[in-house]
Amino acid sequence: MNYLEFEKPLAEIEGKAEELRAMARSNSGMDVVKEAEALDRKAETALRDLYKTLTAWQKCQVARHPDRPHCRDYITQLFTEYTSLAGDRAFAEDEAVMGGIARFNDQPVLVIGHEKGNDTKTRIERNFGMARPEGYRKAIRLMDIADRFRLPVITLVDTPGAYPGKGAEERGQAEAIARSTEKCLSIGVPLISVVIGEGGSGGAVALASANRVAMLEHSVYSVISPEGCASILWKDAERMREAAEALRLTAQDLQNLGVIDRIVKEPLGGAQRAPKETIEAVGKAIEAMLKELSGKTPDALIRDRRQKFLDMGSKGLAA
Fold first, then answer.
1. Among 84, 93, 157, 188, whose CB has the most other CB atoms within 10 angstroms?
2. 127: which DSSP letter?
3. How far is the C-alpha of 8 from the C-alpha of 5, rounded, in Å?
4. What angle do helix axes 298-318 and 173-186 make, rounded to 10 degrees?
5. Residues in the chain where the model's pLDDT stays below 50
6. Of 7, 47, 209, 274, nearest to 265 (Cα)?
């Protein structure tokens, strides 16, 4: 288990419990069951107290936890007959965005998501989930396929933001993001998005301009990272805690502002402690949101989606 900075007290308690059990395993005559169970109860109480009062910055840390389930994990567990579709038919394949045709509860769908990777090798291959222009152009191509064959689109958002490198800018990063966002708003099929970790800037919006947007309880969704915001506003990235509060980037804040439609509850201690349970909860949320949109005509879906985003400003000002 990788512990976050604010989880250090919990790490000490759980570490002591594991030490007792290790001693018992090496010495069969040692009875430490009661002591270990007492530490387990203390750890659970500490965990519950910690996650009851998470700050916005702590939620950012949880959202970035390397052990959280990623897009590939959701596709593997929730979808069947997944067939990957690669390339933007213009420049290259972008490993940071994965997608393809699959079945969800036996219903044909098209799924697209950011993939961060789960170890050093795959994180480098996936560019830590930061897509280049070809990634967004691939997403556009896949959404066109979905629109042509009347397939609902499900997107799984988990990115620090679009890749800001020189090559990406030379190949039209801003234009690709804008066209992907435009495509989201114009397809005549149900479009559902779930923020499963980080929803960073235009790189997230390009896949999340959907009829229904959900967020995991401890995920974040913002126009800029807290570190980037602090660097711009105060010329001091160390003020990221203050920036995180000001950005109102938590699922709870964004639901109050009308930016998202629902929050998917995470297991105690975050998705990283119970990935399978988290993925199942997201699957139930996707199922419910698809039912809400079933039977709507293409024109109604487009109007619903566009109006949702046009209404956001007024709701935000009212809040």
1. 157
2. G
3. 6
4. 110
5. 316-319
6. 274
